[in-house]
Amino acid sequence: MVLQIYTTTSINVIIVLRNTFWEVLVVEFSEYRSPIGNILLAAEDTGLTGLWFEGQKYFAAHMDAQHQKTEVPLFETAKNWLDSYFSGKEPDFTVPLHFQGTAFQKEVWEILCSIPYGKTMTYGEIAKRLAAKRGLESMSAQAVGGAVSHNRISIIVPCHRVIGTNGSLTGYAGGLDKKVQLLRLEKADMRPFFIPKQGTAL
């Protein structure tokens, strides 16, 4: 639960309820200009917490619109990763991440991180993997879709690699045009995929 967001000229503070204790978090922000759109980065001392395309659905959720931009070493690592990625190469190093979400969302996001560069996975396949992990017969692909769409760390946590069972390129909060560009950048086989007549971003 987020109680308050307070921005001064030098720091960005978010007060959240974790378990039964209120905790004050200092959040840093930075910007990155990618070939397909401006990106906002957010981080705490434990890792990157957000990476959004400017204007995307759920853009900087729970963050103040007037957030102060700062630079910390973690942002340099993240920007070097993005430089490598947008040059058409699979980055050979990782960026420290700090997931902020429910236990279910975090499980889904961890699976997203396991999808290989240039490959894809369906919402149904993710649901089956989660069901097997939990010892269940099945799990809702729609629930998985909700968790995927609320991923706060785009690209590095590659929700753009998730597609519909029928090959539909749907459900990307950053926009279908960016989803297509990212998959093409990774030289994914686009032949089985199609853009739905009406795009969705859950």
Summarize the structure.
The chain is of the alpha+beta class. It has helices at 73-86, 103-113, 123-134, 141-149, 176-185, and strands spanning 2-7, 12-18, 21-26, 28-34, 37-44, 47-53, 121-122, 162-163.
Q: Would you spell out the secondary-structure blueprint of this structure?
A:
Blueprint (H helix, E strand, L loop, with lengths): L1 E6 L4 E7 L2 E6 L1 E7 L2 E8 L2 E7 L19 H14 L16 H11 L7 E2 H12 L6 H9 L12 E2 L12 H10 L17
Helix pairs in contact: 3-4
Q: Pick out the low-confidence regions.
A: 1-11, 13-19
Sketch the topology as an H/E string, one letter per element.
EEEEEEHHEHHEH
* Beta-strand residue fraction: 15-25%
Rg over C-alpha atoms, rounded to the nearest angstrom = 17 Å
Characterize the structure shown.
- By secondary structure, the chain is of the alpha+beta class.
- It has helices at 73-86, 103-113, 123-134, 141-149, 176-185; strands spanning 2-7, 12-18, 21-26, 28-34, 37-44, 47-53, 121-122, 162-163.
- It is globular.
- The protein starts with a strand and ends in a 17-residue tail after the last helix.
- Mean pLDDT is 84; it is low at 1-11 and 13-19.
